[in-house]
Amino acid sequence: MSTLPASARYDALIIGAGHNGLVCAAYLARAGRRVLVLEAGAAVGGAAITQEFTPGFRVSAGAHLLHLMPARIEQELGLSQHGLEMAATHLPTMALHASAPPGTEAPLAWAGGAAAHLRPPAGLTPTETAAYSSYTAQLSEFAAALQPIFEGTPPRLGTKAWSDKLSWLRLGWQVRRLGRRHMRELLRIGAMNVFDLLQEHFADPRLQGALAFDAVLGSNYGPRSPGTVLTLLCRAAAQRVAGSGGLRQPRGGLGALSAALARAAAAAGAEIRLETEVAQILVNDDRASGVRLRSGAAIQAAAVISNADPKRTFLELLGTAHLDTGFVRRVHHLRTQGMTGKLHLALSGVPRFGGLSDAQLQGRVILAPSMDYLERAFNSTKYGEYAAAPTMEITLPTLSDSTLAPPGAHVLSAVVQYLPYALKEGWEAGRQRCLETLIKALEARSPGLAALVQGAQLLTPVDIEQRMRITGGHWHHAELAFDQFYMVRPVPGAAQYSTPLPGLYLCGAGSHPGGGVMGYAGRNAARQVLAQRGKP
Amino acid sequence: MNSAPAEQPHYLKPLLKSPFHQCMRAFSQLDSFVPWAGYTSVDVFTSVEQEYFAIRNSATLFDLTPMVKYRIAGPEALAYLNRLVTRDVTKIRTGRVGYCVWCNDAGHVIDDGTIFNLAPGEYRLCTGERQLDWLLDSALGFDVRIEEVTEQIAALSLQGPASCAILKRLGLVGVERLAPFAVGQFTWSNMELTVSRTGFTGDLGYELWLAPRGATDLWDALMAAGHLRGIRPIGSRALNMARIEAGFLLPNLDFVSAERTLRPGRDRSPLELGLAWLVDFGKGHFTGRRALWTEQQRGIARQLVGLDIEGTKPAHNALLYSDPAGKREIGSVTSATWSPTCKSNIALAMVAAPWFRTGSVMWADIYLNRELVWERRMARAHVTTRPFFAPERRRATPPADY
User: Which of A325, A332, A493 sits opposite B287 (nearest CB)?
Assistant: First the structure.
């Protein structure tokens, strides 16, 4: 960089080696920048990480399936050359039935394969099948129209810059291209809740529950919460951006993806230091000038890019003294408490769910038999409790990848939706009882499962906050909602990856387009940093 | 103070009454009170003119209790204040008072006030309107305690040439050594009395701060001590004439708080308000700094200036034109008065570039109501320096014995 002070060794420091930080590092390094990634943990990956939870048993401790990572990023960074291998792709989805005794009623089953979610699942009535086809056809049109939102840097409001105007024009054109009927429908449903939308389309509670589950997954929402059609559209648009791989499982878990990203970044020249915790972002003459490590050492750089969540970045690492009160107020008000946890079980054999085959169990099994079931589970969380009837996305990664457990043994990895961040009795006291509730719920769907359990781990939002260093433990870093979305994500003044402090950038899930192992926040941030070249 | 029952809805509650309320009522010929920051406050006791002349010729008492007061204390109180306001608070030493403004992120003024450095880590911020919300949000990340202490402190402004002599007569030994913007602690009648050489008149004057229980005794003692020097209580209208002569700004008249404006473009920056001397870009970060720096580089589009207008009729709310025909509008008057002391027709006005330069000539469109017939005058005006009135005695230490 032409403006690089003589004392600076690096063009860019990246705080945190989460997948977005690594993506950002790789793009910057490939553009010829001298990049240093500082990771507090012992391994790269952040929330895309594989960890041992019981001796001999490893699991993707955060995200456990890959379905939003764009093929474009994988290709541009050459991840397959850097060792990324898929244990399975195009995984199927099963939605368990509500009340029928296990084995007596087949779950809804989406077959795997390309664009699997667009094809109706087996087990629907002909009317529902037709409704599903028209619903998904419309949803994919909307997803296509919203695609530009997910690929680029959000435009700013009220500027005269052509780049901002072009972004608006492109989005406007995409929406206008839908035609009058579809555009009107998109505007009608855009701010609705997913409960009402799915009631309009379907009668089958299993189908409603499974579709609503994907709309609320990872968020503080029940199906009746406003803004849940937005999250549904986001997921659909992001999946479309991702390409045709469907639900995928990297060999070695999500940590293998992070390792491949790290190798791609390193091959391009980026340096990655593990167990190196950043204590403070340094400021010199109203510009981010580097970081101070927990060890006390200072490292100078022309740009500091934070993969940490916005609250940690601004309120802790930078400090409010370098920011304006109004901006701090907005960051402080960000909704960042997570409601999603993880359950990991070490099993001595394969559990059986209803009549599901091994091939079907390789995919994900959704325990969200109806929208009311989901809403009730959500209700308890609002008041600091977890649901007696929990809702989960269950996977058995060892069916596709035997490297994760000893021979013959298996791992169950479940995303548990609706675990409150602030449990009334406190997680210290409530953890064991919650774990038992979850295993009991699984046992009810899979008799004999409890007897297979060799070891168990429950990661609550508080655990995620502490282990993955995400304030509030929210896997999107900040709630995905209209007031924290696109050009106001995470907050106005920091929505284009740059921040009010010159030289400081954001590249994490708190930035657009949000969480999920996607990588666009890191890629967009890198582009933004590169665009600033030569500017004071 | 407020004896309203708890169940009474807030909009039916009477305004708070200052601890000086009964004293003021006894002196008020008009029994006229107006609201100010949740209190009743006197606008006129007898006549605006008599009260004004007392400010410039003898001594006056004005009840400052409704002025909103915040205690700002803690190890990071100084760092907090320096991030809050635009001036360098490290330069306000212990025992000193400083005028200041604070801005929002866009560099637009939220309010002005005075910072009292009472002791290390112990400050008081006085402001015309309540600001707790902004002050607390500004405290995120700082080890500082902020509490509103308005009702815990009775405050009285003693202004006028004879003010120092009256305080000496009251028995405040050494009060004459207080320099302008200094604050000192005194014991009076077995009570702690804080005296600052500050005021809103641009004249020799002091502000007295004490516990409310001593309020009426202090009032009576000051009235007795100043009796032979013509002391009298004044209301806000006479004070307003004096503050225009002194060139001081009044929120909601000369600018609207950036937290209150609804229409775009109605906010004002300190640079636009002619307060560039209060903005210290070299002290480190403060809220609004980046926006103000950009504005300073770009140059301001308008500025608040003092006007000297021909004639004797105050140019209240007058629009300003670059030409006597009134074709090109270039600003408007925010505060205006006939200045009896300067014998000139003065005003504060927001004027567009480049007309805000000292010496620029413009025309004020003045409307006069003459026995219910409206007449319109185009009066020639020119930009002049502020303050309009700045007597030597306001700075002299010790002050002469008037």
Answer: A325
This prediction's pTM: 0.94
pLDDT at A119: 83
Backbone torsion region of residue A473, taken as left when φ is above 0, otherwise alpha when ψ lies between -120 and 50, otherwise beta: left
Of A286, A321, A324, the CB nearest to B141: A321
- Identify the CA nearest to B101 among candidates B251, B283, B244, B282: B251
Number of domains in chain B: 2
Beta carbons of B371 and B356 less than 8 angstroms apart: no
pLDDT at A363 over 80: yes
Q: What is the pLDDT of residues A172-187, one digit of tens each?
A: 888 888 889 999 999 9
* pLDDT band at residue A293 using 50, 70 and 90 as cut-offs: very high
Contact call for B104 and A325, based on CB within 8 A: yes
Cα angle value A311/A314/A319 (rounded, 5°): 125
Other C-beta atoms lying within 10 Å of the C-beta of residue B327 = 8
User: Is A104 a domain residue?
Assistant: no
Q: pLDDT per residue over B327-379, tens digit each?
A: 999 999 999 999 999 999 999 999 999 999 999 999 999 999 999 999 999 99
B289 touches chain A (CB under 8 A): yes
Instruction: Decide which of A121 and B166 is more confident.
Output: B166
Rounded Cα–Cα distance for residues A132 and A128 (Å) = 6
Percent of residues, chain A, with pLDDT higher than 70: 96
Which segment, A34-43, A97-106, A349-358, is predicted with the most confidence on average? A34-43
Residue A275 at interface with chain B, using a CB cutoff of 8 Å:
no
Q: What is the DSSP string of A253-312?
A: -HHHHHHHHHHHHHHTT-EEESS--EEEEEESSSSEEEEEETTS-EEEEEEEEE-S-HHI
Domain that residue B317 falls in: 301-384
Once rounded to an integer, what is the mean pLDDT over residues B241-265?
Answer: 95
pLDDT over 80 (residue A8): no
Tell whether A284 lies on the interface with B, counting CB pairs under 8 A.
no
pLDDT band at A159 (very low <50, low <70, confident <90, very high): confident
Spatial separation of the C-alpha atoms in residues B255 and B260, rounded to whole Å = 11
- Residue B245, class by beta-carbon neighbours within 10 Å (0-12 exposed, 13-18 middle, 19+ buried)? buried
Per the domain annotation, does B249 fall within a domain? Answer: no
Under an 8 A CB cutoff, do B105 and A321 touch? Answer: no
Q: Which residue intervals of B258-320 are DSSP H helices?
A: 289-298
Q: Nearest-CA neighbor of A520 among A265, A150, A80?
A: A150
A519: enclosing H helix or E strand: none
Q: What is the pLDDT of residue A533?
A: 63
**Lookup: tokens for A82:** 């850097």
User: Is B158 in the same domain as B60?
Assistant: yes
What pLDDT band is residue B6 in, cutting at 50, 70 and 90?
low
Residue A485 buriedness (CB in 10 A; 0-12 / 13-18 / 19+): buried
The letter for the amino acid at A233 is L
Q: Give the range of the structural domain holding residue A20, as residue numbers without chain letter.
A: 10-51+67-86+250-334+472-531
Supply φ then ψ for residue A512, to 5 degrees.
Answer: -60, 140
